[in-house]
Design goal:
By secondary structure, the chain is an alpha/beta fold. The protein is 28% helix and 18% strand. InterPro entries: D-isomer_DH_NAD-bd (IPR006140), NAD(P)-bd_dom_sf (IPR036291). This is Phosphoglycerate dehydrogenase.
Length: 310
């Protein structure tokens, strides 16, 4: 596939432009913020590089679309993908970043950071023994690159890690992998749930009463997509203690609105979608590597199955 004319649309387009210039990539580029892209640009281009696609535009003239993020729901969910257009995604340090993010919150909980901070503020000396990672059971939803890397990090500390995927196919670093239909009986054994799933027709609103009410005081971490979690069901599960606390990095609406009840809940921890960021250098590195393979008709490890949504 020959690629000559490329649009890069991103909040970090200036940094990307600087790196590409420094690396001497000889292509005809147009660099924009997301809001500046026009239909004329898309009619001109062979390839489009961005974090998302706008509904009002026609993308059929493109040969290739490359997502600067790991997720592709902003390209596919609820949309009709243009026939014959290749879609790839960025693969870089996302798994390591998310694994460390999750590990930090597990340790924060097990080492009783909040309890001891409160006691410090009250000037009270009340020892309590922290729990060990090796005593914990964690269920990770999604056993792709991010889920596998997270499982690897946690299992190195002796955590018993279970996986859930659409196929239920066994993967390295998991004690056991189940599919969505047969994983329910294990839920009551878990200490923590981690969601890394993409947003698809199968995963939207997945974490509702059916799953949350089967839990017994777990810590829930969502680093997948916000719309996989029913926020009302989550608040209800926090009230009934089925969920002991929730760490949320992704939301249905981003930025999270001021009126959302999640802000004020004492057992909800919020971060602004930072568990796995694309840095300009990593984004460019993956883009160049993919471009070389696309033009050389070589196998792509980061190609997206547009029918499955990931």
């Amino acid at each position: 596939m020959e690629i000559n004319k490329i649009i890069v649309a991103s909040p970090m387009y200036k940094e990307i432009q600087e790196i590409l210039n420094r690396k001497g990539v000889k292509k005809n580029f147009r660099f924009y913020s997301d809001e500046e892209v026009t239909q004329e640009d898309l009619n001109w281009a062979d390839a489009f590089v961005s974090f998302s696609m706008k509904d009002q535009f026609d993308y059929h003239n493109l040969k290739w679309v490359h997502s600067l993020g790991a997720g592709v729901d902003r390209f596919l969910f609820g949309k009709e993908w243009p026939t014959g257009v290749l879609l790839t995604r960025t693969v870089c340090s996302f798994g390591q970043r998310i694994g460390e993010y999750c590990l930090s919150y597990l340790l924060k909980d097990l080492q009783l950071h909040d309890r001891f901070q409160t006691l410090k503020e009250q000037k009270q000396w009340k020892p309590k023994t922290p729990l060990l990672l090796s005593e914990q059971k964690v269920m990770i939803y999604g056993t792709g690159e991010i889920g596998q890397t997270t499982a690897k990090i946690l299992s190195q500390f002796g955590v018993k890690v279970y996986g859930v995927s659409l196929s239920g196919e066994n993967k390295e670093h998991f004690n056991e992998v189940m599919n969505l239909e047969n994983h329910y009986e294990k839920l009551s054994e878990m200490d923590f749930l981690i969601n890394t799933l993409p947003l698809t027709a199968q995963t939207v609103n997945l974490f509702n009463e059916e799953i949350l009410n089967k839990l017994t005081g777990v810590g829930l971490i969502n680093v997948g997509r916000g719309a996989t979690v029913n926020e009302k069901a989550l608040l209800a599960a926090l009230h009934t203690k089925h969920v002991r606390f929730a760490v949320l990095d992704v939301f249905i609406q981003e930025p999270l609105s001021d009126e959302n009840d999640l802000w004020s809940h004492p057992n909800v921890f919020i971060t602004p979608h930072i568990s796995a960021v694309t840095t300009p250098s990593e984004g460019v590195e993956c883009f160049i590597e993919t471009l070389i393979k696309v033009e050389g008709n070589r196998p792509l490890s980061n190609i997206v199955d547009v029918k499955r949504g990931y």
